Amino acid sequence: MSQIDPIADALVSIQNSENASKKSVTVQPGSKLLRQILRVLHDRGYIGEFEEVKDRHKTHFNVSLVGKINKISAIKPRYAVKKNDFERYEKRYLPARDIGTIIVSTSQGVMSHTETKEKEIGGRLLAYIY
């Protein structure tokens, strides 16, 4: 099975498992970018612990769910955003001010949009969650 966007597929798996009230989900294939996205989700309290499992040539993540996700989705196309333009995308993807998180890939790693605003750096939008 060929995957065009493995990040979007992983986030859809998380959303579907959350909607089915499952306690955990296995997300594959694993990658460094997916690990960083999961770390941001964990730090913000949307998911519980996650572990990376490596089998021969494949990597996957076992993610524990805590029931705090209403909506999670990849952002396509991956818009490039300047440090002062985040408000426009917050209005587009998040339901209200200070509710939810946009996950951004920056030159300093993957982080939430609030961290990028504090550090005054731009990046590319990867996903949103609330």
What percent of the residues sit in helical stretches (DSSP H or I)? 25-40%
CATH class identity of the largest domain = Alpha Beta
Query: What does the average pLDDT come to?
Result: 95
| Terminal residue distance | 30 Å
Count the beta strands: 8
Largest sheet: 5 strands, antiparallel
CATH architecture label of the largest domain: 2-Layer Sandwich
The number of distinct helices, counting runs of at least 4 residues, comes to 4
Note down, in words, how this protein is organized.
With 130 residues, this protein is of the alpha+beta class. It has two domains: 6-65, Ribosomal Protein S8, Chain: A, domain 1 (2-Layer Sandwich); 72-129, 2-Layer Sandwich (Dna Ligase, domain 1). It has four helices and eight strands; from the N terminus they run αβαββββαββαβ. The protein has helices spanning 6-19, 32-43, 86-93, 113-119; strands at residues 24-27, 47-55, 58-65, 72-74, 80-81, 101-106, 109-112, 123-129. The longest helix has 14 residues, at 6-19. It is globular and about 40 Å long. The termini are far apart. The model has no long low-confidence stretch (mean pLDDT 95).
